Each structure stands twice: as structure tokens, then as C-alpha cells.
Amino acid sequence: MKKIVLTLSIFCFTFFYSQKNQNYLQIGYASICCGPPSDKPVMSYLKEFKKKNQIRSMEILVQNGLGREGEFNVYVATDALTKNQKSRLIRGLYATVSNQNNKRAQNSSGMVNFDSAVVVHHTDLDTKNLTIYKK
């Protein structure tokens, strides 16, 4: 009986603490008329950041289906990063997003929105359309 209780408690503990990331940065892709812009610049920056800082895994979530024209959000987990890494990530994301917005066609292309002050918690995420980014 003690072994069963011990095994069950270990299983419950592991299951309860399996979700480590609780805080996410939100990057929103909005559309004006012809669909949202590509996520390629931001994703390539995140891939480069991960490689440069030797981060084993970086959780990136995508939430699709937010509008008629394919608007979506990208969430980047920040709990596994140090304070210095997080500040470098935010600075790099600002630069990447502003560069992408400056290069867009003003009347026909969508915008990328990023605000580091907006921290989304895991409990605030709508899991209905949420998937893990795998590319």
C-alpha cells in the first residue's frame, strides 16, 4: 500500500510541475486587407537567439484563427531565460519587429505588434487554437 501511495504521489508531483513556463511574450500579427505578414523574420531571429545563447529548448506557441484574414499570435516563453538573456531577447525582438514593419507596403500589408510590457500568463492563454511551433 505504501508503494502505491508513493508511486501515485511521485506521478502527481511530476504531472503538476511538468508545465514550467508560466510567462510569455506576445507577438501579434494583424492584417489590413491581404492577410498578415510573414512570421519568418521573427522566427529566424528566435532560432538565431537560441543558437547564439546555447539554449536547449525554447517554448514557442502559436495561436491561429484570431480573425477572418488569418491573424495569429506567437507566444515566447521567458521563464527559462536569465535576466540578461530576457533583456537581449526583448531588444532583438523590438529591432526585428520594427524592421519588418518599416519594410512593409503601407496600404496592403499587415503589421506585427510587440510590447514587452504585456506579459501573458499561462492561465490567460486560450488553449482552443494553441499549438506548439515546430519548424
What does this protein structure show overall?
With 135 residues, this protein is of the alpha+beta class. 36% of the residues lie in helices and 24% in strands. Helix 2 (40-52) packs antiparallel against helix 3 (83-103). The mean pLDDT is 83.
In brief, what are we looking at here?
It is built from 3 helices and 5 strands, in the order αβαββαββ. By secondary structure, it is α+β, with helices and mostly antiparallel strands.
| Multimeric status of the protein | single chain
How large is the radius of gyration? 18 Å
Query: What does the largest sheet look like?
Result: 5 strands, antiparallel
Tally of DSSP β-strands: 5
Q: What's the helix-strand series? A: HEHEEHEE
Poorly predicted runs: none
What value does the average pLDDT take? Answer: 83
Q: In which range does the helix fraction lie? A: 25-40%
Q: How would the global form be characterised?
A: globular
Number of helices: 3
Q: Going across the major beta sheet, what is the strand order?
A: 4-1-3-2-5
Query: How widely separated are the two ends?
Result: 46 Å
Strand content: 15-25%
- Structural class by secondary-structure content: alpha+beta
